[in-house]
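Problem 12. The chain below contains 258 residues. Write out its predicted structure in token notation.
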Amino acid sequence: MYELFFVFFATATVMAVVLGCMMLMRRKVSHAVMEKHNDVAGFIYSVIGVVYAVLLAFVVIVVWELYREADAKVQEEVRYMSSLFRDARVFPEPHHSAIQAEIMNYTDLVIDEEWPLLRDGKADDKALDSLHRIFDLYTRIQPQNDYERVWYQETVEKLNDFSDARNQRILAGRAAVPGFMWIILVIGGIIVIGFSFLFGTINTWAHMLMVALLAGVVTLVLLLILALDHPYRGIILVGPEAFVEQKAHFEKYLSSQK
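Solution.
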């Protein structure tokens, strides 16, 4: 709810400021003067508008793909974690119970402690320590026959993939749009909106409506980029639902074994 209010407030504020600037300019320069240059201004504005629209579309596509990649990395990490939990049953006690218990602990730490930190692009040290303990538990296993050796080799590969997926999930939470590009996007938006003031129209209210809508659309697209650029916070976010769901499966399995 807070995020929706922020979007509404930010968009309305920008539209109000833009309309104020436009009315100030209208008082300084009459529409009759600007109307004489509508043809030239229209040609130039179409070029500027197309260039800015292409830039916005490019950035939106890039951050959307990175957002989807962040979600995919979460799913990938959960998939490897689930496989490790399931395959631990191959190994004798006390190894498989210890591994499953530590994977459960890792899941709890990711959900309760690490996920809030991802909003700032940070990781939880406790979750990392838990991952290290999972590695340590596997190093203590000594396969006793060919059957266990095959499973052990495959499990070690999954364990490394699990660790890599975790690292990629954390890195995906860091902003992808550099500060310089944000400066270009904001300045470009100001130019596009400001240029629309230069058209001379007899109907001031119609002109105000068109300029306000343009400012609103540009603001909403920039807010969309901002939201997608931080996949673990804001309105459009990647949540820990995959971990929560997998935790429920783990608990159901462990309760069936009692």
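Discussion. Residues 107 and 243 are 7 Å apart (CA to CA). Students who got a different answer should revisit the alignment rule from Section 12.3.
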